[in-house]
User: What shape does this take?
Amino acid sequence: MAKILVVGSANADLVTYVDKMPKEGETRLGESFSINAGGKGANQAVACAKAGGNVTLLAKIGQDEYGKMIESTLIENNVNTKLLLDSESQTGVASITVDSQTGENKIVVVKGANDKLTIQDINDNIELIKQSDILIVQLEIPLHVARHAILIGYLAHKTVILNPAPAQKLNNDILKYVTYLTPNKTELEILADMEIHNEKDLKIAIEKVASYGVKSIIVTLGDKGAVLYKRKEMTYIPSYKVDAIDTTGAGDCFNGVFAAYLAKRYNAIESVKYAMKAASICVTREGTIKAMPSKKEIHI
Ligand code: ATP
Ligand code: RIB
Assistant: This one.
């Protein structure tokens, strides 16, 4: 089976559900609290493995209780942890507040050990990158390290998926090495340096980012679905109608499942459809890793 390597973050998610987001300066009483394994890299790796992918996560954790929780969660979910590296720093944490009425969230991440991932860590494992077929990278690790992993994947002729989250500006010295760029609307606005108010803006923004050399772009649009831009053609794929209770990790679910189906030799449009089905299930459940659907549930 094709191999997938995720290079990214692993966090402990400190999640509070509240009936309404507090305003600035306001204190509200929450409904519940839990601590779970998360982080974009770990979430994407689990989503991919649960969809049937053969996946390894290259990430850095601290030697603390949160690090142990992340490692055991990954193992339980069949993610290969041989490249889960130890750091002297504390494991990354994400403080997440979810509005239980709308399912929308606010997240603050303290990168901790994720920020200690180095180019040397990538180089030490270069053979594994070369043995993988698909590489997935996000931006909760140092940008120059993400770029290095992407470049190595590109030079080794791998399919490179970059999920440019959390949102930040990127230059073409990264984007030109990417096979599939998967921003949400906000991330695309930052990459294209413009606001998107309608379909026309969306098209202009996609074409602007494509002009930096990215081969294909998939913009995820929440409950509106996604747009795939490939070989100058734009395909709009609507999402499933569901009652979302927690959208945290929807993008991660999408990315991990998309990679899993590409690895099974489905084409990009088919893989987006499976990713969308999976993400629509993910948003109907609380949490990230525990919300990722199984292969059996992802049928279209
Ligand atoms: P998040 O940051 O919340 O993890 P994101 O902003 O990266 O997510 P979105 O574009 O919000 O990504 O969602 C990713 C995919 O998840 C969408 O393309 C869609 O398939 C699915 N999705 C998200 N929200 C909903 C919803 N309310 N109903 C149905 N599907 C949804
Ligand atoms: O995308 C969701 C993830 O973002 C959470 O699991 C949290 O750790 C932050 O990284």
Summary: The CA atoms of residues 35 and 223 lie 27 Å apart. The radius of gyration is 18 Å. The first strand starts at residue 3 and ends at 7. The mean pLDDT is 96.
